[in-house]
Amino acid sequence: MDRRAFADEAPGRLVPTIHDALAYVPDDLEPVVDIAAVAPAMLEATQALGELKGACRRLAEPSILIRPLQRREALTSSAMEGTFSTQDALILAERGIERDDDDATREVRNYVRALDDAVVALGRLPICHRILTDAHRTLLSGLGHGRGAQKRPGEYKPDQNWIGGRTIDTARYVPPPPVEARACMDALERYLNRDLRPFPLLDLALVHYQFEAIHPFADGNGRVGRMLVALMAVESGLLDMPVLYISPAMEHRKDEYIDLMFGVSTRGEWTPWIIFFLARVAESCRETIATIDRLIALQDDYRRRAGDAMRSASAITLVDHLFRQPTVTVNEAADVLGVSYQAVRKTIDRLVDVGILSVFPDAYPRLFVARGILDAANPPH
């Protein structure tokens, strides 16, 4: 890491670490922020969050939105860290159908589980070490050698890590050594749970930077750090449910995302980072509102098509179930509707005929999927 990159304005200090290298230890939050400079971005993001909060209340069934958004976040956030899978592989993994050697999909599936568990934990705990380390443990659990098994799941890093280089000598950024990192995380936990929090939206930007600057885990820091944004939005009351996921908005501007955080560390450039981050929050909100509109319109369309095709309440009941769980077997559908295998098979066949269901490839027992529901969770290309 180049000492010359760090100006006097850097909000932290350089400390010696392994191999005669230097590491950066960020100052504890709360920095001095030019509120006037970031006010327009805060206003735009606040309005977008308010509109999203209202749009979510239009949903009769929140899981119609939450699960598709979580899948997309898991796939995108993981891809940003070099772990690639597909929506189909993830859905099969969620149903317990996966290849033994598909650690990438298992890791993405773990991300969804970690999100779920962390949201549930918010009902009994504030955002704290335990929530973050439990999320990390889930994220990296059950993986093979070299992916998660050797990355100390659920533990803060025991060794020095670095970013942007094959060796620490060539690294662009070296985060705090383990002892300093733990002290930084203690301070971050105190900041998250302080009594007076006048700008919870601003805190999203500050805390996300701080977590990434600390880089407290041996692996998985980017994913846990972006997960933290969704948790903070709920815990602070900005949103009623976990629907703020920033990875899709960050993915196509990844270099700028990284460079702006580096600019905070090296030159104390908080304003450009905060404006960028809040713009991505507003973008994410607008995209999710559009997703809500698509899902509601699609549910109305599917209910009409199912009703016209069968004149049966069972068909509409099954359509509504698909918006909670867009894949289904014949036996599962029979349990949902409380009818015989033969009767539900007729209903499924008619939903296939009208284009609501299709056969999911490479799945046994035979699985049917409402592909349009899955597609509705993604923005149109």
Q: How would you describe this protein?
A:
By secondary structure, this protein is mostly helical. The chain has helices at 35-56, 63-80, 87-94, 103-121, 129-139, 178-192, 200-214, 221-235, 247-251, 254-267, 270-310, 313-322, 330-337, 341-353, 371-376, and strands at 12-16, 22-26, 327-328, 358-359, 368-369. The strands form 2 sheets. The chain has a 3-stranded antiparallel β-sheet with strand order 3-5-4. A two-stranded antiparallel sheet has the order 1-2. Helix 4 (103-121) packs parallel to helix 8 (221-235) and helix 10 runs antiparallel to helix 11 (270-310). The two termini are 40 Å apart. The mean pLDDT is 92.
Please state the CA-atom Rg, rounded to the nearest Å.
Answer: 23 Å
Helix content: 55-70%
Largest sheet: 3 strands, antiparallel
Number of helices, where a helix is a run of at least 4 consecutive DSSP H or I residues: 15
How far apart are the termini? 40 Å
Which structural class do you get from the secondary structure elements?
A: mainly alpha
